[in-house]
Every structure is written in C-alpha cells, then in structure tokens.
Amino acid sequence: MINIDKNPKNEIVEKAKELLKQGRTRQETFELLVDKYKYTNKVLEVMKQMPSSKAIEKYGKWNNVLLGIMLLIVAMFSVSIGPGSLLILYGFLIYAVITKRFEHYFWISILSFVILIAVLTISIININKSIDVLAIVLILALHLPMIYLPYWIEKKMCPKPKEHREWYTNHEGRDKIKIVYEFSDL
What we know:
Elements: H1 8-21, H2 26-37, H3 40-47, H4 53-80, H5 85-98, H6 105-125, H7 133-157, E1 162-169, E2 175-182
Antiparallel strand pairs: 1-2
Helix pairs in contact: 1-2, 1-3, 2-3, 4-5, 4-7, 6-7
C-alpha cells in the first residue's frame, strides 16, 4: 500500500525539530530537509519559524519574560473584569508563546496595542470622573513592552534567511539562476 501524505508540512516540522534538537544549525537542517523532501518552499516556510538550539539558549529567557507578563495581565483581567472572551484570546496567545509559535507573535503586539488605545481612550473620555490611576499605570507598564517584545524575540530567535541568486548549468547544459537561502543561528 502506498502512503500518500497530502500535507508533508507536518512531517517537515517534526523532522526539523528533531534535527535542531540534535544541535544542527538552521542552515544544515534546511539543506538536509530540502534534499530529503524536495519541497523548497515548504521547507523554507517551516525553517523561517524554527529557532536554533543556540537561539533558544540565548533568547529563551525573554520568551519566558513575555509569558510572565501575559500571565500577569490575564490574572489582572480575571480579577478586575472576570473571565471572558479576552481571556480566551490571551489563552491562545499564551499557548503560542509556550510552544514558540512565532507566526502568532504579531497578534500579541496587535492585541496589546489595541488594549492600550482602548485604555487611553477610556481615560480621556472619563477625565473628569474618578479613574483608577494605578490600574492605568499598571496596564501601560505591562502592555507597552508587549508591543515590541514579541517582534524583538521573533527577530532574534528566527532571523530571516538571506537570499541571493546563483548561476548554475542544468543537466541540459543551459545556464540557469537559482535562489540560495542562507540561514543564521543568531
């Protein structure tokens, strides 16, 4: 019986994780996976979101800081407004941080920005009424780093590959151009 995998991306992700855990560089992992699967674009897509062991070792603590801030925010919202849809969204984003799914880090920044704008708008609208200044300062102190920190973590842990073009001669003797990707680990 022939096993036809309709989505080789899952297999590529698992193999990439395995190779990176063995201490291979992102470049070595990329080249091995392209040789094995021949799906350059799918391997490239996967490898753009995979940090090396060195990057996790060096910047993993910042991922933990981000997780800690998010847990503080969830606790703060749970106490002040009770559980709700915002907490479900934070739950999804907390899962993304725990599993280092960098493709979702953008949404952490967006959510933090929207919450900051909402808090500032409510503060301006209620300027003559009594407002809890401490709560506003706490929200600002927690959300301001969350606008930039996810972007910075993703950039440091998964630097984008450099891309350049190289000439080669194909099996028919014709000169062709191919795109070569170079991954860095830090």
